[in-house]
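Posting for a labmate who doesn't have an account.
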Amino acid sequence: MTQTTRNPASASQQAKVRSPRKDLGLLRGGIAVLDFGGQYSHLIARRIRALGVYSALLPFETPVAALKEMGVKGVVLSGGPSSVYGSGAPHPDKAVFSGAIPVLGICYGYQLLVQAHGGDVKRASRREYGKSSLKITERTSIFSGIDDRSITCWMSHGDSATKLPRDLVPIATSDNSPFAAIRSADGLQFGVQFHPEVVHTEHGDEVLSNFVFGVCRAERKWSMEGFLEDALDELKQTHEGRVLCAVSGGVDSSVTSVMLDKAMHERLQCVFIDTGLLREGEGAEVSKFLKEDLGVPLESIDASKRFLDALRGVSDPEKKRKIIGKVFADEFEEYARKKGPFRYLAQGTLYPDVIESGQTSAPASVIKTHHNVGGLPKDLKLELIEPLRELYKDEVRALGSLLGLPAEVLRRHPFPGPGLAVRIIGEVTPEKVRMCRGANAIVEQVMREEKLYDEVWQAFAYVGDDRVTGVLGDERTVGTQVTVRVVQSVDAMTADWYRMPHTVMERISSRITNEVDGVVSVAYSISSKPPATIEPQ
């Protein structure tokens, strides 16, 4: 599947701007995204920023008068977990639909648009999740320049518009709906049932670009260079006192630690905690890369026994995540008491961690608690610094490149903060950890050897309690089944399973069953996100 992307202005053409977190005045000339709690809400703003136009997420109830005062060029209504006809469903200021400001409604936002104009929205007879075929019937406005009559798009909804009012015109259909995309008669309001912001929607960037530039007449003024400059200034100017930074060796915490080192080297202490749930050789790699190669102040702590003891007998994934979050916090607080004083705890939290943990101001659903977001205790005595909290993985990699991090570090596959604990279904035991770690190492090694590692988002193995019959030599045996999961994604908000060459699957399976004691069977996961998540727990 191909994705057509319009390249934003070059760095030299884009203006350096101040932080999106502090100055909503930046929205003058930009696009506001009203957040109804959808998983992809922040991704909409991310995609618009990638076009070189500033975009920020605002509460869904933000008044139109305030939007006008900010000087926004257009408004996007995000998706969300609610039904527009449900009791207590979130609704925007009615004036949003007056035509005073261009509007693009996505999924739930599309349904709000239909309902506000007098149309009908009901529970769909057949829910749509994942890929769907979209037939474009009017190739103007938001579909301008898209030559394909039919494109693959990404759906995620359980409700559909069943009747349109006269002032809304259908401009695309799907197998499930004759009104998959609509526009108002005046050409200022649009609604799409699909998600143009996700990478799996063909020409999705063009749909957004057509709205941002063609309908809203916005100008390019946003760049990652400007974000980095502002973030470093903010770290220097607004945080006084010593900083304790949690590092894991992954892309997120590595970029965070290097940013902090540049902004406050003399006040920074990075700490790597070995949880006993890490990838093979992780501790040595982290020490060499950060401490020896980059000169970041780093100290390592082996707390593996403490983590594994705390997880003994626990099978529920949410409990595991919260236990890990608490033990992490306890370790850092103990370190702070011994080596302090420290005022702040810095983490490489990204926006997907925040939205999946249901920690935004919008009515978002909790998908799973991330140990560094919802898993932290409420009485944490250290103030948090999370400079990457609004960014996605691809943005963080771009930021890391600007900071001079080596490509081999930036290309590393994401690894969950709770480590192998979320790749072990059921209770975490030393035996499962051994099998999971060994299988993961083999998957990554084979993918590198086959030159496939950089083609995918994530490749790993997970272990559960499934016991299957096998044959070793001439004897019957009962052993564990390992599942291999490989996905393609750009931002982790959506993902599609990777069509692995059979010869590579055979290599991985053969090596795991021959080299990891206790494993007699290997399965391959073919679920996309949604409906599944990338990690099994």
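Reply:
Got it, the structure tokens are right above this. The CA atoms of residues 100 and 370 lie 40 Å apart.
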